[in-house]
Amino acid sequence: MWDFLFFRKVIEQIIFSPGFFLLLILLIYLLLILKKKKMAHILIFFFFISFYLLSTWPGEYLLVRTLEDDYFPYSFEQLSKEEIGDTVMVILSGGMVLGSPAAGDEEAEIGETTLARLYGGYKIYQKLGCDICLSGGSGSGRSNELLIAKVMQDVLLSWGIDKEKIIIEDLSKTTLESAKYSLKKLEKEGYQRIILVTSALHMRRSVKCFERGEIKIIPAPVNYIFGKEPLNILDFLPNAGTLSNNFYAIHEWIGLVYYGLGFG
After folding, report:
1. Which residues contact 200 (CB under 8 A, 6 or more apart)?
2. Based on C-alpha coordinates, what's the Rg of the chain?
């Protein structure tokens, strides 16, 4: 059945990018029909400037970099050997592809973002050997019963990680729920520290959610998308990759405002 999360997702996709721009174009069209040319020209200028910024390096510098620079990647000097025993790594899910032809009997293929987070966590695990909690249910607004944490577990098992080292949290559909259900499970198990693994762009919002618990949070950002390469003329020309990155960043900024207003 459709639930609140589904309807929230519908509303988000209508009023946020790129739905926002479609509504803006529709509004400009209506203003032209009503012969409100001055207002239409103002909106056209606003549309041009905002769309240019969102599809070029300056917009990515403002929206993406400011989030990804919040935390440094995990440093292996942060924990002593004695502390590793009561430390658990939490890897947050980032989507899967349902019905992928490459999935076979698994029904879903791991998404690119989830895979990047898993691999980042796997590299930390190779050094520390700590327990791993995989967090992710059926996905926000999704009615399917396939749980992404189970798909993530299959990947880690194929990489040689012992099943006994893996903890599954498969109830959550949002970042806030991931924090709520993971903390409840891990606090009960007596863990003292969480190494939190998620995309660098997603880390600020994730930390705010997880810091509501009693366990110490150690951010371990992975899956960076803002490059540090020297600039060239192509960075100032519109491109689809930058546009996608900035839409992702806008989602994170809106989520931070949403939680900051006390709705989460």
Report:
1. 67, 68, 70, 71, 221, 222, 223, 224, 225
2. 21
Domains defined along the chain, listed by start: 55-264 (3.40.50.620)
Which residues make Cβ contacts (< 8 Å) with residue 39, sequence separation at least 6?
31
Q: Which of 70, 67, 115, 73 is nearest to 94 (CA)?
A: 115
d(CA 232, CA 55): 15
CA dihedral 18, 209, 223, 186 (to 10 degrees): -140
- pTM (two decimals): 0.89
Query: Would you call 168 helix, strand, or coil by DSSP?
Result: strand
Write the pLDDT tens digit of every residue in 71-126: 999 998 888 888 999 999 999 999 898 888 887 776 788 999 999 999 999 999 99
